[in-house]
Amino acid sequence: MAEAPAVLDGHPYAAFLDRVEKPARYTGGEVGSVVKDWGSVEATVCLAFPDVYDIGMSHLGFKILYKLLNDDPRTLAERCYAPWKDVEAELRARNIPLVSLESKRKLRDFDVVGFSLQFELTYTNILLMLDLGGVPLRSSDRGEDDPLVIAGGPVATHPEPVSAFIDAVVIGDGEEKATQVALTWARLKKAGVPRRERLATLAKLGAVYVPSLYRTEVDPETGFQIVQAPIEKGLPLPIDRALVDLDKYPFPAVSPTGGPEAIFDRVSIEIARGCTEGCRFCQAGMIYRPVRERDPEQVVNTVLEAVRASGNDEVSLTALSTADVSCISPLIKKVADKLAKERVSMSVSSLRAYGLEPDLLDELKRVRATGLTFAPEAGTQRMRDVVNKNVTEEQLLETAERIFSRGWDRMKLYSMIGLPTEEDADVAGIVEMGARTAGVGRKIGKKNVEVTVSVSTHVPKPHTPFQWAAMDTLGEVARKQDLLRQTVRNYRNVKLKTHGADASVLEGIFARGDRSLCDVLERAYRNGARFDSWDDRLRLDVWEEAFTHFGTDRSRFLNTIPVTARLPWDHIDVGLEEGFLAREYRKALQNRLSPPCGKVAGTFVHHTNVEDAVGDQRRLVCYDCGVACDMTQMRSERVDFLRRLGANKRLPLITDAPVAAPTVEAPVDGEVDEAIEQAPAPVKKAPPVKGRGGFLYRIRFEKTGAMALLGHLDVVRELPRVFRRVGERMVYTKGFHPKPDMIFSPALSLGVASLDEYADVRLERALEPAEIASLVERMNAASPSGLRFRGAALLGSEDAAISRVIRGARYVLAFARSALVAPPGQTAEEMLASACRAAMAAPSLQIRREIEGIGKVVDVRKYLLSAEVGGAEARAALDRAGLLGDLVTLDVFVEITGSGAAKSSEIAAVICGEGGVAPAHRAIRLELFGGAADARFSPLDLAAVKSALGRERSASSAASASALASADAE
């Protein structure tokens, strides 16, 4: 099959990117990305995330390491994400390696390939990325020149099931170790030190586990393969975790932003690491001790800088339990005050279901639109005591009353089934608790209260008190889920969400697995296992075959483990005192609580002002977990944080009447008018359009290269980001979910470049002519690769919206000469000319268009105004769009009507395709055209069209045409 011209010249995936799902996942070029000279650094690191771009772009650890390594002149970091199935198929068919986003280098070219281990069900994706990146899967098969394959993250604390594939594992915080490991490895490699000796040197750095340097034996009590001893002298056992002072490593404000929409498409800022609660099922709460809070002033500054740098319109403050951060109320108030001025909303993750004081809820009300999410984890008090969730139902209902009385009408409650000692009454209690929560809202007069109960299956995790507990069988999980569904039928204000248990069982096996699972993992991968955390991609048959092939007894990983047994992760020391987890497990089986650490005994209230904090000298609780915490320092630090935030006195509680709170409050008309009065004199007299405010500008831009591979909605999201980056405030629509007031020219198909796009945007102030030119320059400097602004012009109240102005478009269709088979005696140009004449003479050119499986017949001839072989102007368009090669072009004019238009691919199909399929080609939208309000273009009157193009080439009103045309001339 002939290839189309490359839409991204020079990219190794150029020939097929526009044919795959979300091609911009693989192009890079986002704002905030860093491309460094490989010759200027000592060590090169590829940060490899074993899931798709959309998920990996939101990962905080990736952002931290990316900036840390790139800020150091000795190192560079680039990114790579797991390719989706369509790209994997293309890479294998073409024998092309997986490459990084920044320099397009294959993984095997890097000194270090570092994987983030967030979830056990991404293990097969690690093998996928190594395989496609040209790196031998097994550590034992790697040669002297192969990269170091290293891993870190929460799952790195129990890495035996992937130990055959990972050269080294960083345990704990990675900030200090990332640079140290990369430089050590690269320097030793350059000095000619053998690979094995390099690995031994890394193992002696501390907090680095090298599996190949440790011997295992089978424990007769359980059959587990246990790490017994190092095979060389001087290697540590156990391997201690790394622990850093967060103030030495400020959270990065700048990181790559843009591309296809990420799962969490917002600025996320880590405000604390660790947790005080001590939930017995929570691995993160155990392995990230002690609690370390970031300097709140640093957090505020980071938030503001991140908003300016990224252009995002939402900020999320994240921690394992944000409500337990000592200065959370004044911190949220200060951040909310700053963000309200910037029209940026804020969310707060991981709220617990008690202790949310009214002042905190009032601040959240200003920046949240919908409901809040809490995690009571269990439906009865007995089960909450078992898991050490220090919350009573009374506290949950009190919080619900405060929430519903402040305008929210939705809450989400997260719980689990399959916890130790669970009974059917505990399972049904999850839904019943949701019903009582909804009842609070109805009691205070809320009519549309809705509580969603989301229920997952408990997976016992290493380094938690429940690491010895059995996991429910699939049959038992199904029975409990059915009990939940039966119970929820009795309550109309409660919604139930459950999650498939098949993946949870597989997660449980690999969470508590040993080295014997490495063979199972590789076999499953080679037989097609990929993206196992995605329900529609999990291949249970492949896993069943792999377990059966090796005779793996899965029950030993899922059943109850004796507390006295040695475990496959015992050689990893996360800092907990020996015997602590066992004591907590026994207390769980007796329904006994342990108090949360770092708090005043018997209370869950944290202080919101310096006055109360200084006056409260009650003893703080110590959990006695073995992690060294300085309670005196913790108390003084909290006072200092409150003082820095200006929380010096008690503030009166805000008791507003119930009101629905939008994510971003739209300005009232008076605020807009005041902004206009303070702004410089407008370019022309153009009063704000009644009821909407601000000043309307027509922005002209082009999108080529990587931007042509971005979907229309992603482009729509990008434009407000650009305005925020340059500090230009937009007017927002009214309503419950205000959005930037924008209208775009007609959307393009994915992969179609354009040299003539428009957007009508409403700004809060009028700009002088010099300011407009400066704005365009600044926007170009703040835009991702492939997005270029050509001009801007102020519109008046008499000007029609861009969607009403545009009447047609001009396309250049480019075909590789080799893709066109001309009849004997004809050139490709002659063949296309003949096809164009035939198409224009045809009364009808019908083609089937299919959208989401629904087809309809489109008559392309109805929209086709002109088609001819392209000349010099078409060739110039190819150059501007970056399309190279021996190309033959068509120059096509099409009409755009209120009822629709023809796609460029459909035009190519009806003119020179076969069976309704267009030959391989690329399309460029060369220009859009419009006319006077009373003008209408006849599909046959090409002369009138070209005349109109001469008069109104810019597709804008006469008033703004000169400004945009002059910008184009420049």
Automatic annotation (TrEMBL):
Comp. bias (Low complexity): 955-970
Signal peptide coordinates: none
Region (Disordered) residue spans: 951-970
InterPro entries: CHP03960_rSAM (IPR023862), DUF2344 (IPR018768), Elp3/MiaA/NifB-like_rSAM (IPR006638), Radical_SAM_N2 (IPR045784), rSAM (IPR007197), rSAM_horseshoe (IPR023404), rSAM_sf (IPR058240)
GO molecular function: catalytic activity; iron-sulfur cluster binding
Radical SAM core domain boundaries: 261-502
NCBIfam families from the UniProt entry: rSAM_fuse_unch, sam_1_link_chp
Pfam families: DUF2344, Radical_SAM, Radical_SAM_N2
Protein name in the entry: TIGR03960 family B12-binding radical SAM protein
